Amino acid sequence: MSSFKSNFKLGDYLTLVRQENPLVHAITNHVTINDCANITLAAGASPAMCESKEEVSDFVPFAKALYINIGTINKEHKKSIYLAAEKASRLEIPIVVDPVGAVAIKSRQDLVKDLLTNYSVSCIKGNNAEIKCLAGRRTHGKGMDSLDTGKDIQMVNSELSEKYNTMVLSTGKTDLITKGSTTVKVSNGTPLLGRITGSGCMLGILISAFIGVSDNDLEAVIAGIVSMGIVGELAEESISSTTDLGSFRVKIFDYMAALTSEKLQERGNVSVL
C-alpha cells in the first residue's frame, strides 16, 4: 500500500468502482442481505451472496473482495467462512470482517480472533463496542448495538491494528480508521443511520467494493465510509421528519445511485489524527 496522503481525491475511488464494477463475494447476515446487495449495486459494484460450503471455494477466485459478516452465524455458515477465507488469503483477495454481535457472544469473539490470527484480513470493521471487545477491553453494548462512546477508541484501534497487522475501522458518532501508525477520522453521516437495521452491514460491503478496486486500501476504505455518510446526510435532508425512517431507508439507495465523485469530494469530512 502506498503512503497515505490527506489530500487524496475521494471521488477517484467512486469513479473506479463504477468503471471496474468489482464483484464482492459476501457471506453475510440474513437480516440485511437484501440491503447489502442493493447498496452494492447502487454504488456501481456487483454483489454475490454465495454461502454454500460446497460452492464458496470455487466462487471466491472470481471476486475482487470477500465480505464476512457474522450477524446470523450458524454451523454451516462457519464452515463456509473458513473455506472462503482460506481461498481468499491464498489468492491475496482482500477480506473485510464484520464482527456483528461479538460483544454479547463469546463464540463469535473466538471466531473473529481466529480469522484475524490465521487469515489475511484487510480490514476489521465494527462499532466501538465490538472493537473494544476484541481488544479485551470492558465495553457497553446490547445485542448488535454499541453504547460505547469512549475517548480511548483510537488507542484500541492502534492496538488491534498492530496485533493483527490489519486495518481497523470503529464506527460511532465519528468513524476512526487505523492502519499502522496512521489514524483518520471521518465525520460524515447522521444519527438516523443508527435507527435503521442494516446501515452497518451496508457500510461493510460498501468498503469491500472500494477495497476491491485499489491497492491503497486505507484510502479506499475512507472513500467508502465517506460515501455512506454522505448519502445518509442527503437522505436525511430529503425527508420531512426524522420519524420518516422508511422513506429515509429508501432514499439511501437513491442517493447512492446518484452520488457523483464531485459530491463526494465536496462533502467529505476527513481529518488525520
TrEMBL record:
Q: Which Pfam families match?
A: HK
Name the coiled-coil region(s).
Answer: none
Matches recorded under InterPro entries: Hyethyz_kinase, Ribokinase-like
Catalytic reactions on record: 5-(2-hydroxyethyl)-4-methylthiazole + ATP = 4-methyl-5-(2-phosphooxyethyl)-thiazole + ADP + H(+)
Please provide the Gene Ontology terms (biological process) for this protein: thiamine biosynthetic process; thiamine diphosphate biosynthetic process
Pathway recorded for this protein: Cofactor biosynthesis; thiamine diphosphate biosynthesis; 4-methyl-5-(2-phosphoethyl)-thiazole from 5-(2-hydroxyethyl)-4-methylthiazole: step 1/1
What cofactor does this one take?
Mg(2+)
Chain sites annotated for binding substrate = 49, 198
Gene3D superfamilies the UniProt entry points to: 3.40.1190.20
**EC number of the protein:** 2.7.1.50
Q: Which NCBIfam families match?
A: PRK09355.1 (NF006830), thiM (TIGR00694)
**Function according to Swiss-Prot or TrEMBL:** Catalyzes the phosphorylation of the hydroxyl group of 4-methyl-5-beta-hydroxyethylthiazole (THZ).
Task: Provide the family line.
Answer: Belongs to the Thz kinase family.
| Protein name (Swiss-Prot/TrEMBL) | Hydroxyethylthiazole kinase
Tell me what organism the protein belongs to.
Natranaerobius trueperi
